[in-house]
Specification:
Strand order of the largest sheet: 6-9-10-3-11-12
Largest sheet: 6 strands, mixed
Strand content: 25-35%
Helix content: 25-40%
Number of strands: 12
Oligomer: single chain
Order of helices and strands: EEEHEEHEHEEHHEHEHEE
Length: 224
């Protein structure tokens, strides 16, 4: 699913953020990504969702070497990836329902299944109710708390059952009970075959889930 081959990254003329990183993740695996603030977690995720290119080395996704892809091949590859950003990236002029429905409307359905608009609205509404936002389906992001916006972002990332799900501190703005409920959602998606990588500082969550960790320290990676 993911392979990094001697990958390093720095921005402009700054110091290396990631240093000579090599690892591979099997399809259907579930990993936490840990490390202190500034260790490079967000940068590593950015390389995984094609938001940046490595300074050196190769990133391989879905058996495709990313640096060899033509520009017009990238959008179809990105549609296989669900991303939960730390700052949500919601569209302010859209309702919760329309924010979450966006990936379905772009792709035309769920996974390989093409569905109509009424089915999309029903499917999105069901997921929003599951994450505790059934009473806020038509609310705009500005009308919602940070925790509620985070749940919308998570619903949008998983709505199309992506083959790869990347999440940057997805439980950072919610209470523990909601956090575990969201982790259960990620686990169910993983059982359906989605590869999951979650960056988090929450040691209690990591210990409870008992999943392997990718640990970044000073730009270098350890797997344990």
């Amino acid at each position: 699913m993911i392979r990094f081959e001697n990958v390093s990254l720095h921005y402009d003329s700054g110091p290396e953020v990631l240093k000579d990183i090599s690892f591979s993740l099997d399809a259907g695996s579930f990993y936490f990504l840990t490390g202190a603030s500034g260790a490079g977690k967000s940068s590593l995720l950015r390389l995984m969702y094609l938001g940046a290119k490595p300074t050196s080395g190769h990133v391989v996704l879905f058996d495709r070497k990313v640096d060899e892809l033509a520009r017009d091949e990238l959008p179809s590859l990105r549609r296989r990836i669900g991303v939960v950003f730390q700052d949500f990236h919601l569209l302010d002029h859209l309702s919760a329902l329309d924010n979450v429905a966006l990936p379905l409307r772009i792709a035309g359905g769920v996974g390989e299944n093409k569905i109509g608009e009424s089915e999309i609205r029903s499917y999105v509404g069901e997921l929003l109710r599951w994450v505790g936002l059934g009473d806020h389906i038509m609310a705009k992001p500005s009308e919602l708390s940070g925790g509620q916006q985070q749940r919308i972002a998570i619903a949008r990332a998983v709505i199309n059952r992506p083959r790869l799900l990347l999440a940057d501190e997805p439980t950072g703005n919610v209470d523990d009970e909601t956090g575990y409920r969201l982790m259960h959602l990620f686990m169910e998606l993983n059982k359906l075959g989605t590869t999951v990588v979650i960056a988090t500082h929450n040691r209690q969550l990591i210990e409870k889930m008992e999943k392997p960790c990718l640990h970044l320290q000073h730009g270098r990676l350890m797997v344990h």
